[in-house]
Automatic annotation (TrEMBL):
Stated name of the protein: Uncharacterized protein
Organism: Meganyctiphanes norvegica (Northern krill)
Taxonomy, superkingdom: Eukaryota
Keyword terms: Leucine-rich repeat, Repeat
PROSITE patterns membership: LRR
Lineage: Eukaryota, Metazoa, Ecdysozoa, Arthropoda, Crustacea
Length: 178
């Protein structure tokens, strides 16, 4: 269906109760600049679902869904100045397999990954991006939660240093806990 509108620049599918995204569905849109999927009922961003052929994509809005999982290889063709908004979802993890390539691309420009207002768990699996200075300006995360204390933690320098110490101690004491 999208093959018939290859010059489309702005696709707004917000608030349509979408529950799934087919693989490579947006590939025919070679001039797409804005993709708005805000406010649907998406729970998973599957592999290949956000593969794009446009070199000029500026914004992908995935906020206010029910997203719990972003699979490896969900994104392809993301520009280094793209803004991906995943705020106000149900993400508990920011896995390197799903976001590593995106943040590496963003580190070459001004792209932004917004994962704020999620229930991201404070754990050693966050260190891959918290300790990478190149990603500092490219991710908006603000807070994380741990299983013991329901009060959110700001992901500031003190938190990062404490997490490094905790994770180093945990990995030495028991590799299975890391």
């Amino acid at each position: 269906m999208l093959e018939s509108v290859p010059n489309l620049r702005n696709l707004d599918l917000s608030w349509n109760l979408l529950t799934t995204l087919p693989g490579m569905v947006f590939m025919p849109l070679a001039h797409l600049e804005i993709l708005n999927l805000k406010g649907n009922s998406l729970t998973v961003i599957p592999a290949t679902s956000l593969w794009l052929s446009t070199p000029i994509i500026r914004s992908i809005y995935l906020n206010r869904n029910e997203i719990k999982t972003v699979e490896e290889d969900a994104f392809l063709g993301i520009d280094y100045n793209t803004h991906i908004d995943l705020s106000v979802n149900q993400l508990k993890h920011v896995p390197e397999e799903a976001f590593g390539a995106v943040l590496h691309t963003f580190s070459k420009g001004w792209g932004i990954l917004d994962v704020s207002v999620n229930h991201i768990r404070c754990g050693c699996d966050l260190l891959w991006f918290l300790t990478e200075d190149a990603y500092d300006r490219n991710i908006i995360y603000a807070w994380c939660y741990d299983l013991i204390n329901p009060i959110p933690h700001p992901m500031n320098d003190k938190f990062i240093q404490d997490l490094i110490v905790k994770c180093n101690h945990t990995s030495i004491a028991s590799p299975r806990l890391n």
